[in-house]
Amino acid sequence: MRGCCRTLIIWVRAVATAILTGVVSKIVVFAPGALAGTPLAVRLAAPAAGMAAFFLMRRSVFAGVAAGVLAILVGMWVRGG
């Protein structure tokens, strides 16, 4: 019974991760609100920078989020907006 529960938990986690990835991807590509004024290149670079920081900083969620936000801010500053 334990192996079955463990498999179910792994499956639920995988489905939740896939749903979250889909939602974030949709927000990045089809940006709502103020984010729509940000160029697509900046919106695509920010998650890439966040993922790089996440893995470089030993899976630190804080580092990943901070790097993503910083990438958007720098991208907007460079663009002049």
Task: Name a few traits of the molecule.
elongated, 2 domains, 81 residues, 3 helices, mainly alpha
Dominant shape? elongated
β-strand amount: under 5%
Average the pLDDT over all residues and give the rounded result.
93
Tally the structural domains.
Answer: 2
| Rg from alpha-carbon coordinates | 16 Å
- Unreliable stretches covering 5 or more consecutive residues: none
Q: Which series of helices and strands comes N to C? A: HHH
Descriptive overview:
The protein is elongated and about 55 Å long. Helix 2 (about 40-55) runs antiparallel to helix 3. About 80% of the residues lie in helices and about 0% in strands. It is mostly helical and about 80 residues long. About 10% of the residues are buried. The protein contains 3 helices and no strands. The chain has 2 domains: about 1-30; about 30-80, no CATH class.
Which helices and strands appear, and what pairs or packs with what?
Blueprint: H1 2-29, H2 40-56, H3 61-79
Helix pairs in contact: 2-3
Task: Briefly say what this structure is.
The chain is mainly alpha-helical. It contains 3 helices and no strands.
